[in-house]
Design a protein that fits this description.
This protein has 234 residues and is α/β, with parallel strands linked by helices. 29% of the residues lie in helices and 21% in strands.
Length: 234
């Protein structure tokens, strides 16, 4: 059974295009990380087994760069929505720019760079901030620490909770993603027909049914959308 729509609820689904405007590289575009690195080698369980030191080096660099980045105007606008709405941010991004901007309900679907976990079936999760992970650094269960990142072939985190959030939202804002990574991209399909639905990115192959596509930089488009939505509550 579908949950009831909550009239005051906004769900934001964000992707790497949003963080790109804070200086962090995307993965799939023409200048993305997967043009420089092989995801099979640095972002898969098989790559981890073959060359864990290469995987750690890749994510140590990502973590260091993310720790130096600052939220942009779009992050700040999304956080400002909390002044009038119940806002849940579902993000594919592994940085914490939403939190730094002031968003208080952020669900990381693909993990977080600032956390590490062991490699057992029931690993403990540790906040490591911007610190690197090195070989020989162990979880308390005795297994090697790895980045708390969802690699290719692994299950997305919190996906069922995310579906419930989208299905109960009166407004759905998708920003900075071309919806090419599944199953996260499938979340737009559970947005309700009578919900207001906006998609903002630079390029998308096919706009999801019922979404209003606003092409452009998030730092330009999103503050305008947010100001409109906030004005509706005044």
């Amino acid at each position: 059974m579908k949950p009831e729509i909550q009239p005051n609820k906004i769900v934001v689904l964000s992707g790497s295009g949003l963080s790109a405007e804070s200086g962090l590289p995307t993965f799939r575009d023409s200048n993305g990380l997967w043009n420089e690195f092989s995801w099979q080698e640095v972002a898969s369980p098989e790559g981890w087994k073959a060359r864990p030191e290469a995987v750690l080096a890749f994510y140590n660099e990502r973590r260091a760069k993310a720790s130096q980045a600052l939220p942009n105007a779009a992050h700040e606008a999304i956080a400002a929505l909390e002044a009038a709405y119940d806002v849940v941010v579902l993000t594919q991004n592994v940085d914490e720019l939403h939190e730094l901007a002031g968003s208080t309900k952020v669900v990381h679907l693909h993990g977080q760079l600032s956390y590490a976990r062991g490699t057992s079936d029931s690993p403990k999760r540790y906040c490591i901030g911007s610190a690197p992970i090195v070989l020989g650094q162990l979880c308390e269960d005795g297994t090697q620490l790895r980045p708390d990142i969802v690699w290719f072939g692994e299950d997305v985190q919190h996906i069922e909770d995310a579906r419930q959030h989208v299905a109960s939202a009166a407004k759905v804002l998708v920003v900075g993603t071309s919806l090419s990574v599944y199953p996260t991209a499938s979340l737009v399909k559970v947005a309700r027909g009578r919900a207001e639905k906006i998609l903002n990115c630079l390029y998308i192959g096919k706009v999801p049914y019922g979404f209003n596509f606003l092409r452009g930089n998030a730092t330009t488009v999103i503050p305008t959308v947010v100001e409109k939505w906030l004005s509706q509550t005044r």
